[in-house]
């Protein structure tokens, strides 16, 4: 299945960004006008999302997404209940429960930790469960096929053991183009695992995820979200291999989302979850 970039509408102004070139040459993040705002979620999606009982296992980029959801709901009549927990959840009503799972750089440990949470008391209480890896979990040195095989086996096992839980699949996030400082560091052997070869590996992993789960209606494609604004996806090529990068207009640093990016990603998460519970 070919990758179909998700084109996200950003209201307010048309962004005049030359993000990849500007950041790579100057080392400075492109400026985004303060008036730019993410498109609000569909009201029906909002109504469905607040009734869902969701668990989201993540690390720092996931925290960006949760902050984006809280920001989006701040202007809504419905309240979003967010609770950080691995077991105890509210007795009634919908919620977005979340926890940091495993440690960055160890995707297999994250799989085990997520499974222990879902196999515990919390797995009996949720409607939807999501595990998102971090960009540092898939790098140029990763055995991409092995990680994907472990992920798909985990999802298959959890779905069999917890038939009432709808599992949302995810791609792995991206990093931005290297700044000139990062390029210099790479020359002297100080690899930050956020360079072109690392995003090539992430693209390989994400393609496996899309091919397996893209037609399920349960894919939270955060990589597609991160790589796209009005000016199109940030496509790059390395040694004849296409890959994507985190768009500078959505980034707070080379691997994390700014306020705009957080809200755009949260909007997509709300849509995907709402489709499972509406």
Could you characterize the architecture of this molecule?
With 278 residues, the chain is an alpha/beta fold. It has a single domain (38-277), classed as SGNH hydrolase (Rossmann fold). It is built from 9 helices and 12 strands. It has helices spanning 19-26, 43-51, 60-73, 107-118, 144-161, 180-187, 196-213, 222-226, 259-277, and strands at residues 10-11, 37-38, 53-58, 82-84, 95-100, 128-131, 166-170, 219-220, 228-229, 232-233, 235-238, 241-244. It has a 6-stranded parallel beta sheet with strand order 4-5-3-6-7-8, sandwiched between helices. A two-stranded antiparallel sheet has the order 1-2. Strands 9-10 form a two-stranded antiparallel sheet. α5 links the parallel β6 (128-131) and β7 (166-170). α2 crosses α9 and α5 runs parallel beside α7. The radius of gyration is 18 Å and the shape is globular.
């Amino acid at each position: 299945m070919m990758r179909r970039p998700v084109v996200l509408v950003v209201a307010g102004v048309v962004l005049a960004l030359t993000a990849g070139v500007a950041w790579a040459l100057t080392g400075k993040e492109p400026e985004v006008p303060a008036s730019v705002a993410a498109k609000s979620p569909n009201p029906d999606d909002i109504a469905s999302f607040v009734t869902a009982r969701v668990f989201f296992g993540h690390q720092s980029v996931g925290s960006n997404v949760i902050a984006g959801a809280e920001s989006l709901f701040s202007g809504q009549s419905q309240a979003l209940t967010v609770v950080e927990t691995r077991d105890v959840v509210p007795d009634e009503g919908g919620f977005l429960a979340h926890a940091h799972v495993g440690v960055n750089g160890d995707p297999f440990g994250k799989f085990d930790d997520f499974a222990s949470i879902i196999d515990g008391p919390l797995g009996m209480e949720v409607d939807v469960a999501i595990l998102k890896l971090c960009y540092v979990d898939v790098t140029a040195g990763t055995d991409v096929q092995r990680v994907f095989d472990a992920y798909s086996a985990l999802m298959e096992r959890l779905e069999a053991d917890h038939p009432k839980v709808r599992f949302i699949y995810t791609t792995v996030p991206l990093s931005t183009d290297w700044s000139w400082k990062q390029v210099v560091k790479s020359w002297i052997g100080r690899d930050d695992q956020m360079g072109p070869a690392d995003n090539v590996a992430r693209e390989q992993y994400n393609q496996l995820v899309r091919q397996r789960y893209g037609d399920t209606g349960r894919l939270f494609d955060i990589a597609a979200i991160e790589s796209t604004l009005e000016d199109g996806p940030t496509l790059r090529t390395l040694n004849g291999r296409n890959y994507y990068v985190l768009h500078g207009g959505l980034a707070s640093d080379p691997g994390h989302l700014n306020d705009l990016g957080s809200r755009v990603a949260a909007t997509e998460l709300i849509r995907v979850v709402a489709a499972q519970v509406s």
